[in-house]
Amino acid sequence: GMLEVIVSDFDRTDRHTEAAEQRAHEEFVEFDRVSRADISGKETKIALDQEDLEATKNKIAQNLEDLETAQKLIDSALRRLEDLKPTCIDTGMSYSDRVAKREEEMAALKRALCILDTEGAESECQ
User: Fold this and answer.
1) Is 115 helix (H, G, I), strand (E, B) or coil?
2) CA angle 121-125-126, nearest 5°?
3) Per-residue pLDDT tens over the stretch 95-109
4) pTM of this structure
């Protein structure tokens, strides 16, 4: 009677416990496999992200150097422009005065050409 009930309860508890342990072991094995794969994937992603970070840092450094060079060129060009402005702007002469002066310069250059043209090659000097 009583002993048989105890033995059957023990057997049932033992079977349930073994089945639960087997399920827990299978779940752990699955969890372990998934976790290892996930960790491996994340480690690979970290390595790739580190490479991207280094490449980006190098690109930023190169771009900053290029920017510095370009800025120096711009500064130099602006200084040159400032140096040339007085020559080009506000000469104190009116347009007609400048035209007359250019015509005088051209006439003087033609006279100099004729003086240097000893062989008579220039048609304007004959």
Assistant:
1) helix
2) 85
3) 888 899 999 999 999
4) 0.47
